[in-house]
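Quick question, first post here. What does this chain look like in 3D?
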Amino acid sequence: MSLGDLYDPLRAHHFDPYPFYARARREEPLFFSPVIGAWVVTKMADVRTVLRDGRTFSSANTLRPYTPFPPAVLEELAKGFPQREAFITMDGEAHRRLRAPAAAALSPERVTAIEPYITERASRLIDGFAKDGHVDFMAEYANRLPVDVTARLVGFAEEDSEAFGDDSRAAAAMGMGHQFRSDEERIECARAWVRFQRLIMRYVTDRRAAPRDDLISDYIAAYAPGDASLTAEQEAGLVGLILGVALPGHITTSALLGNGLLRLLSQPDQWRLLRERPDLAPNAAEEIARYDTPTHIFLRVTTTDTSLGGRDFPAGTEIALCLASANRDEQAFERAEEFDITRPPQANVVFGQGAHYCPGAGLARRQIEISLRLLAERLPDLRLVPDQRIDYRGTLDHRGPLALQLQW
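> Answer (accepted):
Ran it through. C-alpha cells below.
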C-alpha cells in the first residue's frame, strides 16, 4: 500500500504529522495523495527544484479547493466580486507586475518604519492581560497583533481592524485545504469572503478619491492610474489584489506566534535560554518558523512533461509541496528533528523561495522577534496551563493552535 493511501492530512495526521513526514522522506519521498489529488513532495531538494522553476511548475492552481464548491456556496460567492487578479496564482511577467506594489509596501524600509508601532501595539496587548495571571494567547495576542499591523500597512482604519480580522480569518477557509465541519460553516465562510471584499471596495472608493500612503492607494495607482471612474473589471481586480495581500498578511504570522509559544513553553529549557539571552530572539523566530512551519501544503501544476524525484510526470500534473516536511529534512538540516533556538540561521522554505517568495516575510519575522523579546521580559514565568487539549485550525496552509492557554 502506498503512503498516499494512508495519508489523512486533516484528520489522523493533523495533530502531529511529523512522524508521517519522516517516514515518507525515508520510504516514499514523493507519493500520490488521493485526498489532495496531487503528488506530495516531502524532501527539501525536490521542493526547492519546484519553487525555483516557475516555468515548469506553475502557480495557477495554488488556491484551488480540495473539492468543488457546492451550489449554495457558489450562490453566496456570486454576491461579491468575481476573482479577477491574484498574483499568488500567476507566473512570469504578470506575476512580477502585480506583486510589485506589495513588495514595495512590505520593503525593509517600510518594515523598519512600522517597528515602533509593532512594539507599541504588542506592549498594549500584553498590558491588557499581564495582571490576570492567565490568558488565551491566541485570542488575546496572536490573532490580534498581526491583524492590527497588517491593517495599518494596508490602509484600514483602526475601527475596522476587528471586522477585518474576523472576516478575513473566515474567508481564508475558502482557499485550498480546509476541513469544514458542516455545509453551513462553509456557507458562512463564503459570506465572510463577500463581506471582506466589500470592506476592501469601500476603501478602494475612498482612496480613489483621496489617495494616502498605504497599500490600497499604491495598488490603485499601479493597476488603474488616472482619475477616471473604475470599470467593474478594475474594481474586481483591485479587490482581488488587495485581498491577496491583506489576508495572508496576518494569518501565517498568527499561526507562527501560536506555534512558537507552544514549542518554547513545551521545552522550558529553551524558554529559559531566551529569557537569559534576548539577543537570541531572531534565531528563535527562525527556528520556530523552520520547526513548526504553518504552511504544510502548497500547490503547483506542471506546464510540460518533466521529471521530479526520480519520477516522470506529464503536463497538467498537480504537485503538493510539503513545506513543513522539507524544513525538517535530515539531509538539509543537522539535528533536523531537534528544536534549538541557538541554531545558526539557515535557509528554509517557510516563506517559499524564488519568484513567489513571500513579500511579507520580513514583517512576519519582526513581529515574532519583538513579541518574543517583550513576552520574555514582561512575563518571564510564562508556562502552559497543564493538561490542556491543543486543537489546530482545520487547514493545511496556515496550521496553528485554535487556542493556547497560558499562565504565570
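The beta strands are 30-33, 38-41, 57-58, 134-136, 298-302, 306-308, 311-313, 318-321, 383-384, 405-407.
The mean pLDDT is 92.
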